[in-house]
Design brief:
This protein is mainly alpha-helical and 87 residues long. Helices cover 51% and strands 7% of the residues. The protein has one domain. A two-stranded antiparallel sheet has the order 1-2.
Length: 87
Amino acid sequence: MMEDLISPELNAKFDAFREKLSNSPLKCNFCGATKEHVDHLVEGYTAFASYTPCICDVCIGICIEVIEKNGAAVRVKNFAQKLRESE
């Protein structure tokens, strides 16, 4: 555990920082919007207990549009199909 690697003083500071972060509202990592500003805020997973990566529905829509315009969606679909065929 991390507590074994750092001094008690530094661990106390880290705990205080983690507590401060846990009390702050979740925000989209791309645009900074909170749950109150968007329809959906998708929470991701991370190994760090003090951090939750998020993306909002607006940014997801922008990402989809960029992927579609660049033709990447077709390439991803074709790649996924090849993976299924190779199983």
